[in-house]
Fold this protein.
Amino acid sequence: MSATIKKAQRLRADIIKLLYYKKKSSLTDLSKRTKKSLPLITSTVNSLIEDGLIIEQGLAPSTGGRRALNFLLNPNYKRYIIAVAMDQLTTQLTIYDLSNHQVLPTQTIDLDLAEGKSVDGLIAFIDDCIKKSNISKEYLLGVGIGMPGFVNAERGVNYSFMQIHDDTSLQDYLSKKLNLPVYIDNDSSLIALAELNFGEARNLKDVLVVNIGLGTGLGLIINGKLYRGSSGYAGEFSHIPLSESNTLCSCGKRGCLEVETSLLVMVQKAEAAVKNGEETSLKTLFKDESKSHVDHFLHAVIKQDPVAISILADAAFQIGKGLATLIHILNPERIVLSGQGAKAGKMLLPPIQQALNEFCIPRIAEQTDIKFSTLTNEAELLAAASLMVENSLFE
């Protein structure tokens, strides 16, 4: 393929990405954002219209002169993305069209990443969902997967889970087995990407996105872009040595923030409280096996169960203590609380704010506001889809 054709293909993909995130744009706006000439953008957009990927959508707001046409992705264009969101115990999957509308309702499976057969289980689950959707593989752009652990997105390797015992990367192995392009990334990085493109970090420059889940993760947005660090592992918030307990972390070290702040730890403390005979609604809730103990714990928090709130408050205070450190170093304009634990909502704020008041220099802390994610459970699924969009040429 010649360099000219590659450049044209790349520009087509860049325009599609801009419309995917921004929903609609004028030719002038696309020209500014791609830094390409207006005639070149016009020609490329016309080509995309001819191919059915883009349609006209009314006039842009007046800026004093002739109102420009807006363009958006064709919602009826048959290209779809498989989005997979994984935590240590549960995997969710949905299929989106290019307008981020679900064409397959979210599917869920219990999949323990610590088990040796989790890779085969994931492949079978994805294949089953494709069959359930009745979508031909020729219309699937590929699979985006967010997962916990030390993930090197460039190499497609997860050094914590689902390692392949030869020279093949997990990403390449999944791609070969599924016969589709596959891209993987760390779940917290992807959640930050979702907040940047669709949520509370949109149009901001410097934001910390905290993923409160079965682990405690962090995505860093610096100068309007996801920051990965020199080797891709930036944001390992959960392994800051702030815990005073002697509990061994999954990373093999002691003192990690995660041993006091993850939802798994909170649930373990709640289970111990029930076993010790403390008066709590959790005693009844935990008997219901139709939902996970994590879901029951968060429900108890929302319903203001004293035991559940006390456990959450201890964890949230430690999270706030860690955030105080990061605020001093990075001076972010916003912190976004995301992930499954963000369902606790306003119950999280008082202990986090208490920690910031205690450990943060006021002049610095007052420059940072705290918001809850509005994307809730869909954050990682949306980000997994955008991971595929970022890597596709839409051929």
